[in-house]
Amino acid sequence: MPRTYILALDQGTTSCRAILFNHESKPVGISQKEFTQFYPKPGWVEQDAEEIWSTQYGVIAELLAKTGVSPGDIAGIGITNQRETTVVWDKTTGKPISPAIVWQCRRTTEIVEDLKAKGWEEFIRSKTGLVLDAYFSGTKVKWILDQVEGAREKANQGKLLFGTIDTWLIWKLTKGQVHVTDYSNASRTLLFDIYDLAWSEEILAELGIPKSMLPEVKPSSWIYGKAEISLFGDASIPISGIAGDQQAALFGQMCFEPGMAKNTYGTGCFMLMNTGERAVASQSGLLTTIAWGLNGKVEYALEGSVFIAGAAIQWLRDGLKMIEKAQDSEYMASTVEDTDGVYVVPAFTGLGAPHWNMRARGAIFGLTRGTEQAHLIRATLEAMAYQTKDVLGAMEKDAQITLQALRVDGGAVANNLLMQFQADLLGVKVERPEVIETTALGAAYLAGLGVGFWKNQGEICSSWRMDRCFKPDMSEERRTKLYRGWQKAVERSKDWED
Ligand SMILES: Nc1ncnc2c1ncn2[C@@H]1O[C@H](COP(=O)(O)OP(=O)(O)O)[C@@H](O)[C@H]1O
Ligand SMILES: O=P(O)(O)OC[C@H](O)CO
């Protein structure tokens, strides 16, 4: 009997999800759980890799229990993950030697500035396609080796391993048998030459990272190993797809042709445009990154990474306690007509694309005696749309195109008010698909292609269905006026931290 499902594991910044997809690309069951974020100092963000694993394992168990799907019915596992977040663990004990350093964490700002002062910026960009910023894994690994007692010595003796979260989960799923990543995740480490498709000896040497710590790099659809956990009983399930979550969403949105783009509104906001087999070097503050390795070749994307999007709504919920649930932001924002001139710049961990200002910090502008809670909530929501406009402007410049429609996904696109404002502000149609779990879907597709569950991209291409199209409905004059206010606010939030 052919197996009927693909299991996608979506390990995001704030939660772990497990989703079963059937052959018609429909999600037949989902389990999700948030896990703990640690903010030990201003600008620092940490997670516990063991908790990530136990949460991920827990949602798999819950999903199988609630759907009654037998592990023997699962054809393959696809893994997609928050990218750049860095785990270093002891090869023998399998225990992490420090907290996982999250992609948003700014603790390596000084290492980055030192590299810049030594003139590494251009070399790193030319090899990795990335901007020299604390965002990426390379300086985080160096920080761990420098700061954790005895770490560098152990690393030099080949006793430590590094991985992004995909690598960590596969290590756990295979009981320490497989140490692997895919091209899309490797391209986010600051250590990988995206043209030669190899770890960069020069960058590793400069950061003092021994090559023995690094995982093997494979295509995004491949049989990497078999899941060997007791949950699966005797059924041995191939792990057959890996992609960083933003690349997986690009795949799940079926942006297979050069020029097709998607924007994902999760913790951060990430716009990626497929550029095919050609790596486009950005002139406007975007990243050149690997979209995926598939069918014996590598394809590239241009990316605009915004660090704080839905995370600012969580801040309204958990920090300011203005709302109970993220969804409440929509109703609250709809109680006022506009923000009454208020702008929230959520640069909590600096600014990413296209500004790249590590020392920017969050700011609120335009407060008056008439400012109400609802204005602040609305301005926080609108900040996602403004940041997206900054990125789209850069992308259109780099790719020399005018986008006709933007495909969107991620947790926050459930917010209709935000989506309408986004269309209004961009002056472009915003298309929300039926399945907004496109990140997991992309990982499922890659895994399914890896085991022949789906024959080829042509077979899956026809399953993209629109849920709702938001059409622009704002005058050019108002759009320009609102955006000018945002640009002023962003400029003033830069270089706040000494
Ligand atoms: N209705 C909503 N309106 C605004 N933001 C929302 C809404 N629902 C969820 N979010 C935000 O979306 C994010 C969760 O999206 P998700 O795609 O699961 O993120 P991630 O993969 O980064 O963990 C959270 O930051 C949350 O605050
Ligand atoms: O967890 P997400 O979906 O916000 O994605 C995080 C990104 O992969 C960071 O680069």
TrEMBL record:
Residues 5-252 form the Carbohydrate kinase FGGY N-terminal domain. Pathway: Polyol metabolism; glycerol degradation via glycerol kinase pathway; sn-glycerol 3-phosphate from glycerol: step 1/1. InterPro entries: ATPase_NBD (IPR043129), Carb_kinase_FGGY (IPR000577), Carb_kinase_FGGY_CS (IPR018483), FGGY_C (IPR018485), FGGY_N (IPR018484), Glycerol_kin (IPR005999). It comes from the Bacteria. PROSITE patterns: FGGY_KINASES_1, FGGY_KINASES_2. PANTHER family: GLYCEROL KINASE, SUGAR KINASE. This is Glycerol kinase. The lineage of its organism: Bacteria, Bacillati, Bacillota, Clostridia, Eubacteriales.
